[in-house]
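HUMAN: You are asked to prepare a plain-text protein record giving the amino acid sequence and the backbone structure tokens, both parts labelled.

ASSISTANT:
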Amino acid sequence: MAKNTWGMFSALVLGGVFGAVLVSGFARAARAQDEGDAWGKKKSAWLLLSAAEKTQAMEFAEDVKKYLDVARSALGSNREVIRRAKAAGFAEFTKPEQVKAGARLIVSNRDRSVILAVIGSEPMVDGTRVVGTHQDSPHIELKGRPIYPAGGFALFKTKYYGGLKKYQWSNLPLALVGRIDTSDGRTIDVTIGLNAGEPVFVIPDSAPHSDAELRSRTYTNVLQGEEMDPVIGSIPGEKESVAVEVTKQLTATYKIQEEDLVSAELSLVPADHPADVGVDRGLIGAYGQDDRLSSFCAARAIIDLKGTPKRTALAYLSNFEEVGSVNNTGAGSQFLSSTFARLIGAQRGSAYNDLDLRRALHNAEVISADTNDAIDPLFPGLQEGTNAARLGYGVTIKLYGEGFDAPSEFTAKIRGLLDKHGIPWQTHTYKVDTGGGGTIGGFMSREDMEVIDWGVPLLSMHSPYEMSSKADDWYYYRGMGVFLGSGE
């Protein structure tokens, strides 16, 4: 296209169709930045990095991707975090004598949540530093009797987990991950679809040639819950259906009975691998960044902690947040406070009593770390731009209001800590009456702990392929490290 013609075309497009979108959406979202106020003067986190720090941020992102590639579930994350912690000198906490200044301990809860602790030089009753996260992400689970025939195929019968847009999960290569526990005491790990050459599973969609009766479905109901069943087989036996043949192959491969699938935790997750997004490689694209990105940053921060901190530092990686932090491995359980009691009891010996635990919880300072959604360049009007987080502008201090925020003095203290150590930060508040979110912080607040909500923004949050800024991720990790290691 000739230069002048292209210029005329561009002007027409920008002045016409897109002009209204830009004025009503992005311009509003960026208004505060255009007005030259304190927020407008904040630079992109990328511009605050020295050349050496940018290299470190890029290297850190490679480690994030390695973790996300293997940590496809809470089970996978728990296993990988413990592996990394043991390689760095952490040990399973099994006896009171281990609890001494500088000790690096692991407390795992049923393979699905974990606490990493570095014991400080001061008694725990006088104060601790905790970073709390969750390891679960939206996914699809198999029902107890999952294999059934349909239209000459074998399919998995499923139910979805967490807040997801169901239509986003069709036509994707899905992997099967999890474990099967048998009545004779065996635990069998299952991973199908993540390695080269392995089969994947796909939820089929209708072709545009024949889907007229489906087109009246609304946005969130394009695919309904009972329609999220992937194809798992298509070759029938001489005398048996495809479903029977698939069942035979599955039970023979893993040396199980069909009834053993009742005592299984099997999930379908995206099979795509983490990758860089953009020509400049500034973003990480991967499944499960909400909230395994926070879990990884917390684990790396405490594993990388040098020396003995003044206050005992803990990284608490919980489970089931996406469905309310339920069950005995969710943040609604007593696992965290029970671990506090065990550690304090080891420090206090026979003098320990319940008041020691209550005093320790009261004096604990907590970051509840969980990702948040960012201003979307295609749909900026969905956020209230003057208070919404943007990718590439650092750690998010979440301000939900309605009693969920940290006390102002604790927020001020955290702001000061971040500023002192050169950690860029921003804030996030949802648009009134149209959005919302939460973290595990409320459960720790109920224990009388001092809690503030942190995050980093994501694009395409809760989708099968979320995006985060490598600069944000690097500062997130650094901010956690400063918090855990500081005696301030």
The chain has two domains: 45-137+287-485, 139-270. Residues 1-23 have pLDDT under 50 and may be disordered.
